[in-house]
From TrEMBL, chains A, B:
Residues of the HTH tetR-type domain: 30-90
Organism classification: Bacteria, Bacillati, Actinomycetota, Actinomycetes, Micromonosporales
Protein's recorded name: TetR/AcrR family transcriptional regulator
InterPro entries cross-referenced by the UniProt entry: Homeodomain-like_sf, HTH-type_TetR-like_transc_reg, HTH_TetR, Repressor_TetR_C, Tet_transcr_reg_TetR-rel_C_sf
Protein keywords: DNA-binding, Transcription, Transcription regulation
Amino acid sequence: MENGDVDRTLTLLWRRTLGVPQGSRGPKQRFSVDEVLQAGIAVADEEGLPAFSMRKVADRLGLKLMSIYTYVPSRDELIGLMVDEVMGEPGLPPHEGTWRERLTVVARQMWDEFHRHPWLLQVEQSRPWIGPNGSDRYEWQLAAIEGAGFTDLEMDQTITLIGDFTTASARADVAARRMAEQSGISDAEWWAVNAPVLDRLMPPGAYPISGRVGTAAGEEYNAVRDSERSFRFGLDRIFDGLDHMLATRPSNDG
Amino acid sequence: MENGDVDRTLTLLWRRTLGVPQGSRGPKQRFSVDEVLQAGIAVADEEGLPAFSMRKVADRLGLKLMSIYTYVPSRDELIGLMVDEVMGEPGLPPHEGTWRERLTVVARQMWDEFHRHPWLLQVEQSRPWIGPNGSDRYEWQLAAIEGAGFTDLEMDQTITLIGDFTTASARADVAARRMAEQSGISDAEWWAVNAPVLDRLMPPGAYPISGRVGTAAGEEYNAVRDSERSFRFGLDRIFDGLDHMLATRPSNDG
DNA sequence: CCTAACTCCGTATGCCTTACGGTATTTGGT
DNA sequence: ACCAAATACCGTAAGGCATACGGAGTTAGG
């Protein structure tokens, strides 16, 4: 990756504030960058990131493979642009209520987004591109807890904490759904295949606590693991912990 | 994936309890499954999962490409076996101290493991293979909070919470380290390249809170983001939240 | 001693990204 | 009005990947 490529990708990311840099000579491009991104997002939504290829994006637009490279420098950069693009979809509603309610909205927005675009969880961003929608969202997320009593440092750490947990939780849920839907094997069917083999392989009595806890979880949930409920459980614990931190602070003006 | 493949992979995972199923005719295999896994782990450690290929595993053993397929059914299954293999490396020390201290050990073990084998974070396990080391670890993790006052359901949710958060936190840290080390671009250098471009592209004054918080974080940390510290921050909040749940429980015998 | 079973491997298929060069098209400059 | 530069689009090819298939050599059970 060259220095100029950084410049080019950042310029593409922020194209709405400066306009797409395009020379006036030569033929006009048949599509806009936005249309290429929408095609890419559609492919990724339908087939996931491993099956995402430049050829499929080109096919969807009626272009030939190599023409895509006149719009974006490479596959990785295209994906980076797609990420910032979908981050602009949900909009940023004005904050209301307590910081708990606000943070719930923040977390729920991420959770929903990961379910709308599961491939976001498969993106390996070695380099975090700083785009307009990501920047807007981070500002909005910080605004959710502005004035709640956190220090600046804690504000960053809190948003990081919520984001990290939500990401991991959504990852587990999406993986479970993918296993159930894509392979046509439900949770119960999967266990039906695995259980007899495991019965034969596992040393009997080796997992007393797991067995007990697993049975309890299986009876309580409608599935082996209810990710939605685990998500709310974790969120509630984290909120209680943040509450405790704010409440026990020496100089706390509310 | 056929039904028989499930059987074969599970049998390979639990090979230590039943032995590797091998017919007696024909030539003996030059290597053991363990040696193949060690070769695979070495390749993944050195080059990461995207660059992990069957050819490189074969080269490392002095075998030709296709011979690997007589040891493991496919690339995905090999990776699944590698995952369970590394989960057996650290051992499971006996639990001591309070549940807070125990859960800290549990989280720290995962955190360290992700840093020892960063490719674990890149594994896309559409199907969670149930292997001996993973099962042993889950049992050990549950034992850490056995008798602390959690219900069976909460035990599972708590371990999930700690695991989810640790995974996401480690992912952020590993990504940052990779960016710094692998590309030879330090945190400061990356900003030195990006900042001038962003100064030109970003609408001035658009990000007041981000600017203030980012400055605070930059001054407090030695880097832009101190993942180790964010990790401890999140863990402390979660522990406080769990503490609050246990303390406010109606029938709480301690 | 024969043959079934097994290991190892050569070849081939069909994906993928992307470098490079060619051709057609558009427009600024003269 | 015309030329040359710039640009979009695309064909080809190189080099990578997983893995299906079949063949050659090797071992041991009957």
